[in-house]
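Weekly modeling sync, notes
Attendees: S.R. (lead), two postdocs, one rotation student

Agenda item 3: backlog of single-chain predictions. S.R. asked that every request posted to the team notebook include the full sequence so nobody has to chase files. The rotation student volunteered to paste the first one in as an example of the format we agreed on. Action items at the bottom.

Example entry:
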Amino acid sequence: SDVFVVQDEIIRHIVDALAIQPSTSEQQRLARLPTTDLEAYDYYLRAEQAARTGFRLQLGEALLLYEKATALDPTFAEAFAADARTATVVMRSNYDDVLPGPIARKRAYEHASRALEMDREAPLPFSVLAVLQVVDGRHEEALTSAERAVALGPSDAEAHAALSLVLTFSSRHADAIAAIERAMRLNPSLPTSDRI
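Predicted structure, as returned to the notebook:
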């Protein structure tokens, strides 16, 4: 039952070490429990660990674990958003043996939308939508989504990475470099899939 207290302490240490000032929405998000179901949270953390490897088999495992988390807590917005992010990686990597591309794309859109229904202030669903929209050639929508992700999560490395991707495809290369450099400062261990 103390897992969330320990997590809060770790987050505070990370914020201090990075010398960042979380925005109001980031502070509010950090103060909220992502779920009250510890089993769902365990599945989510295991999924995150598997997804961060970027390896084909672990991505499939992560998707299954996210499903278990959201089955236990259908209001677990972070798990839906993370599932959408992982499905997007599967789609972009052409890992059709994990999940066929069209199904991965549909799942990513649906789960990002579901996460936003529950939490309009979360940056990750907007980051996922930005990547999906740029892949679909909807550059203006992608830029709007990526900018919204950064506005909601100025300390969120994934939001800056998504913005970098969108700016790259918008031929704004200097801005794209600045965005990915910001992402790398926030998270030097940024997954390879985010370093486009």
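Discussion: group reviewed the output briefly. The longest helix spans residues 101-118.
Action items: rotation student to repeat for the remaining queue; S.R. to check formatting next week.
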